[in-house]
Specification:
The structure holds two protein chains of two kinds. Chain A has two helices and no strands. Chain A has helices at 4-36, 41-71. The longest helix of chain B has 40 residues, at 172-211. The chains are: A mainly alpha, B mainly alpha.
Chain lengths: 72, 276
């Protein structure tokens, strides 16, 4: 039996757990901050997007590993 | 992998369409060419009759320039004029390279090519950012950009000192490898992020087209439009942040207290630099 698809699925599935929690925390804090101080949304935007991108990068690495397992 | 026809056709690298002398022309090169030609002709066409009070098209095209220009200006009040052009160029090129993949017919119209002995259909156009060659090249450009800005701002000696000598000096053997790895890992993270996002988006669209019917995949096309813009913005903003970090460095000399302490995670400092 070929377990390669299972390995790829586990790689992205487990790899998405951490970034998922991290993105949720980041977005919730940003929403909270905007809710408390709506004028700050302009200054929050750039660090917010950067933080999400840096968190999401971890999931993307897991995705690339999964793709490498599956296709290379 | 197995004999029967797979649900979707996935190629992790660009497929060669034909040979132009020694150069193998891949379908992602066609995608890059389209993005470049559209960008260049749009720039020529829009700047042909510039008005002080912009018309509809001009204000549409000026919107990203205003938006990114404002962000750069807020972080570099003195040298923003030199930093704005590369950042905006990266943003627009990545944006168009992402959007090429959303055009109808891009993944579906193909040529018959012989690949590893068997015949296959290679799409004529592949979105440029779904090819690691394009994103890696762009990340190398960004790397050269922020290293050269670091050298310009702090001098060659200052830049090398910043990278290779830690503060306090006895930490040097420990910190120098970390500094070098963190500089080089930016290339990998920049290129992998863009490639992974766009390539995964392409696969998502193909899977949704294969599994569902009628108008359902359209929702994912809309999602991909948002992701394409966000990823282009992220690439440009990270390049800007790395330039900011490189130029901030030791501008005021050693005795001055500065807010980018040594040994701290570069990404953490990047976030705080973005917040200024």
């Amino acid at each position: 039996m070929d377990l390669t698809p299972l390995a790829a699925g586990l790689a992205i599935g487990l790899g998405a757990l951490g970034p998922g929690i991290g993105l949720g925390l980041g977005v919730s804090k940003a929403m909270e901050a905007i809710g408390r101080n709506p004028e700050a949304s302009g200054t929050l935007f750039v660090p917010y997007v950067l933080g999400l991108a840096l968190t999401e990068a971890v999931a993307i690495y897991a995705l690339v590993i999964g793709l490498l397992i599956l296709f290379v | 992998m197995h004999e029967e026809e797979a649900l979707i056709h996935v190629a992790i690298k660009g497929e060669t369409l034909f040979h132009l002398g020694p150069i193998a022309v891949t379908n992602s090169m066609i995608g890059t060419l389209i993005a470049t030609v559209v960008l260049a002709s749009l720039a020529f066409w829009a700047s042909r009759n510039n008005a002080v009070v912009p018309g509809r098209l001009q204000s549409l095209l000026e919107f990203p320039l205003d938006f990114l220009g404002g962000i750069v200006k807020a972080q570099h009040p003195t040298r923003w004029r030199a930093i704005v052009p590369p950042v905006i160029t990266i943003f627009l090129l990545v944006l168009l390279a992402n959007y090429v993949g959303l055009l109808p017919g891009v993944g579906t119209i193909g040529l018959h090519v012989v690949e590893d002995g068997h015949e296959a259909t290679a799409p004529i156009i592949r979105p440029a950012s779904a090819d690691l060659n394009f994103t890696l090249a762009l990340a190398l450009v960004a790397f050269v950009l922020f290293v050269s800005w670091g050298v310009r701002a702090n001098g060659l000696k200052g830049y090398l000192k910043e990278t290779f000598v830690a503060n306090p000096p006895y930490m040097t053997p420990l910190m120098t490898p970390i500094h070098i790895v963190s500089e080089l890992s930016r290339i990998i993270s920049l290129s992998m992020r863009l490639f992974g996002n766009v390539f995964a988006g392409e696969i998502l669209l193909a899977v949704m087209l294969a599994l569902t019917f009628a108008v359902i995949p359209v929702a994912f096309l809309g999602l991909e439009m948002i992701f394409g813009a966000v990823q282009a913005l992220v690439f440009a903003l990270l390049t800007l942040t790395y330039i900011t970090l490189a130029t901030a460095g030791h501008g005021g000399g050693h005795d001055e207290e500065h807010d980018t302490p040594h040994g701290q995670d570069a990404d953490d400092v990047a976030l705080r630099a973005g917040a200024h």
